[in-house]
Amino acid sequence: AQSVTQLGSHVSVSEGALVLLRCNYSSSVPPYLFWYVQYPNQGLQLLLKYTSAATLVKGINGFEAEFKKSETSFHLTKPSAHMSDAAEYFCAVSPGGGYNKLIFGAGTRLAVHP
Amino acid sequence: EAGVAQSPRYKIIEKRQSVAFWCNPISGHATLYWYQQILGQGPKLLIQFQNNGVVDDSQLPKDRFSAERLKGVDSTLKIQPAKLEDSAVYLCASSLGPGGEETQYFGPGTRLLVL
Asked: Which has the closest alpha carbon to B50: A98, A83, A62?
């Protein structure tokens, strides 16, 4: 069965610092991997996704993630944090095949300090 | 392009009452999902429709939850009777198709509080 582990329920960085949000997955088949962002009282918005093309995936708002099969990881990074990046971030895995069931991690809340 | 619409945005009910949520997906999206997001957790899939047919309802508490997608467009999710542990945000999402690589687009959610 697929599962997702996000290390660190809360991450705090200074404005301009590197953002690193960790995600490890387990899957018996090559997975599809997603990062979503959720702002307060809003739904989830896709940041980026890995669908077995390039292992380094670039997303919106300057975020990127690297798929590392050997480490079963899909960590999210951004070189320089902005105040507007403060939100909750969810990593998700889809087992692929015929149906697109997303399995989410518990989320990481990112705080950005001036 | 209009996004996924949900209503109501907030609902407060007492336990043992019933409640219904409505979702209108993005036009042309064949696949519709209902997720439950409990505070402090990631969303959990309750039910997935492909057009007007159910393809996955393995985590839907069928003794109290029901959902339908008549005509393969909008959908309703109902809880009857509600329990305290049903307090959560109910998210609706849609995608063009059911493939694993498809992006799911989420609505703003309905926040339910059961007292």
From this structure: A98
